[in-house]
Amino acid sequence: MEPFFVRYRNLLVLLALLAVQVVGLAVQVHRADSGRMSLDPRDSGGVRLIRLWASAFVSPPERLIHSSGLDLLDLWQNYIDLRHVRQQNQDLQKTVDRLRLEQAALLEDARQGQRLQALLHFQETYLYKTLPAQVIGSSGTTQSRVLYIDKGTVDGLQHDMAVITPDGIVGKVRDAFSHASQILVINDQTSGAGVILETTRIRGILRGNAQGQPQIVGIIADNRIQPGERVLTAGGDQIFPRGLPVGVVDKVVRDPQRDGFINVIVKPYAKLDRLDEVLVITSTQPRFSPDQQQDMAVSQALKGAEVQQEEAQKKASAIMAERLPGLIDPNLPPDQQPLHDSTPPVPVAHPPQPLRPDRFTPGTAPDLQNSQPGAPAQSTQTPQRNP
Amino acid sequence: MPVLSANSRRELDIHRFPVLVYALVPLTAVVLQAWLPRVLGRFAWFDLPLLIIVYFALGRPSPIQGTVMGFVLGIFQDALTQHAIGINGIAKTLVGFLASSFGVRIDVENHTIRVLLVLFFSLLSSTLYVSVYRILLGLSLDWNWLDELLKAAGNSILALALFPLLDRFRIRD
Questions:
Q1: What is the pLDDT of residue A90?
Q2: What ipTM, to 2 d.p.?
Q3: Chain A residue with minimum CA distance to B73
Q4: Per-residue pLDDT at B38
Q5: Residue A14's domain spans which residues?
Q6: Mutation test of the interface with chain A: which of B85, B133, B134, B137, choosing the one with the most A Cβ atoms within 10 A?
Q7: Measuring CA to CA, which residue among A128, A112, A110, A158 is closest to residue A275?
Q8: CATH number, domain with residue A204
Q9: How many CB atoms lie within 10 A of CB A21?
């Protein structure tokens, strides 16, 4: 048989602990004067010791937490904030990505708008009628430098129409389809355009070389050609109007096939490898802008006024001539004219005889009519010197 | 040679922990319980020492251990207040004893049972506390049972995370 304390040790321990605490509580509580129970405001020695121990256990870790700055509120708030920040960060990242795409699209639109604006301005101010077109493709090889634009015969494009940009010439329409056209660029080896050097006025034919650089071929070596000189279209090829900018002289190289000839490498004004929009000259008939037409009208008006003024002046002169007395009166006989002079004319005074006649004296020259070629010279009669 | 009651399944499932865990976990619980309400204010709807008492009492079917742990932690909590020392002590002592007794008879590995037990012991602890305060000591105390229900619910939710965490410290044979 188990001892009583062993068998009921659990319950005994419980009761013991409860009893201790009840006694402890009884010590801490006392009856107030009013008859109600209340806690002793001042702890007894034992209770104070317990509180001291508890504080000694708890305070160092709390102080450690406090000194290490691990404020849980901040931690909690930071956690919450970080959760929100993470979400916000994801949202903002998405927004940034979206805005970047939009910005890129807007930037591209802005650039295209600027290009189109410049193109439109050029088109409006250009002398000839042009049609804007979008470059939609290329040949894809470096051996064939052609472009494709989105305008064709439906839009009025034809073979051999000049293709330009506000910067300079691009090429010509090599083939026009219904809704697209093939452009032969000036740096292709099979292209050709008549050009002229602006300063030296040397003419040549522009075509591309193997490196895709436009060059002027067939020029006799000339030291006056220097890099930087402007190259313009000459207008003789029936494609490009005269005076369009082509580029500048980049360098001069010897023609490897012909002695005494040079090739002038040209740096084109138009960005041939980055073309987006071009203009096709559809008509070479000059067209004038409203300002120009107004100027011409004003000029014509001024010219008409000048003619009228001249006629008015002539008319006034005639009237004045009728009113003023004339120098010859048709109604009077010649001897009664206002300017008639009845005095005898003064006889012509003969020059006096020279004191010493010489070979310049009249009458001393030899008779050339009777002289014969090869005959001995006749002795000139020397005039007698007067004593 | 110690004799284990072979016919007791529970004695074979005794939870053993390193000594350091027995020392540090209750201390940490008391420290956090003293510190977190300062941080969380009125939202500190939990009683960490109670959770520790219940956890260790359920894991070791030794009423003495549960009782002693309840006693110590209860006194500790009382010592950190201005109230009389022993109020929480009595409540927690009884909870520790009952939890140990429950651990002998039911399967405490089930999370649902754990949560329900925590909910029950939380309400029991609150009831004991109020009873001791008002009946045994005859002191007046304003009481809001809604707060105690919230505290019991908070303890149950916290137990769902805390108990598996403490299970990781168990020594497995």
A1: 85
A2: 0.84
A3: A54
A4: 67
A5: 4-74
A6: B85
A7: A112
A8: 2.40.10.340
A9: 26
